[in-house]
TrEMBL record:
GO terms for molecular function: catalytic activity. Pfam families: CoA_transf_3. This is Alpha-methylacyl-CoA racemase. Signal peptide: none annotated. PANTHER family: E-CINNAMOYL-COA:R-PHENYLLACTATE COA TRANSFERASE LARGE SUBUNIT, SUCCINYL-COA--D-CITRAMALATE COA-TRANSFERASE. Residues 364-384 are annotated as: Disordered. It comes from the Bacteria.
Amino acid sequence: MRPLEGFSVVELGMWVAAPAAATMLADWGADVIKVEAPTGDPNRYTLRHVGQDIDSAPPFETDNRGKRSVVLDLRSEDGKDALERLLERADVFVTNLRPGALERLGLAPDDIRVRHPRLVIGTLTGYGWAGAERDRAGYDVSAFWARPGIAAMLNPAGEPPPGIRPGLGDRTAAANLVAGVLAALLRRARTGEGGVVDVSLLRSGTYANGNDLALQNFFGKRGRTRPRTEHESPLYNSYQAADGRWFWLVGLEGSRHWPGVIKALGRDDLGTDERFATGKARRGHVRELIAVFDEEFAKLPLAEWAERLDAEGVWWAPVQTLAEVSADPQAEAVGAFVEQPGMGDAPPLRTVATPVGFWGVDEKPRAGAPTLGEHTDEVLGELS
């Protein structure tokens, strides 16, 4: 039995964040009804938005598997009435519409709670429900990466921010929303009352950036993001092997890992070099030490360094391409990927699993993503 079997979820969401949260709930057994406008979730057409003449939408399928799609026009009385009847039967309502849009639809959390006091309401916004900017459009790159300071910390000060891959912040916020919803369901089991779970991309981003913001708040200035050739800990830095492969040394405890690294390099002489003999000395000569490491690691391919580093108990990790991740036997072993049925007549899709596993529970998705309005008649028939 999946953990959320018997629970009913209504999702009024689009793009990634709220749909991804609802997909986790669906994977864990909940009956998730995805309410869409007649035009559908815009993420259905994600590749067309960037100019590709392709109907397939693997990102949409990943974030919407296992749901039932119902098309409702919430500007009409019939659509509003149908949604109200769905909420009456539901345990959870998940949405990422902006506060103003929900208020105009009569779906602000305080309004819903009057009509459905046992309902757990999970809202995922860009900038929250308070403040002058609560209705600003909040996408992943703006509200999670840019506004909370994460993008500014990825490169050294003065350099342009790097390109940001889509969806990382959305899925972080989605996991936060799921955690909050489950906590609210536990409270409801004790008290009989629902509640509101308020998650924003901005607050999720400031939490994710907590180390640097803690230092900023304490010292009144930002920590330094250094070029890799000047990193303050050469044992916690990236290097390139002879075959062009990059990898990271992960020697967080410098003095503990130092003997193993120089032994793997075959450079015991570095241990007696006064520039590098102690942690303090190494900190004062990072450029020189990184230059030595660069020269040494460029002599052998990564496979040989892997054997040497492992033999000496040195912590390291390859910088993998997406193709390598997809074929990584360890990722496969931890259940990082699943195969789900295709949407409509599409073939099965191999995609990412949710980040949590339950021992003894079949994690295979029960259904793929629904076509637009696929279950409208079925779900509305259940209401009569």
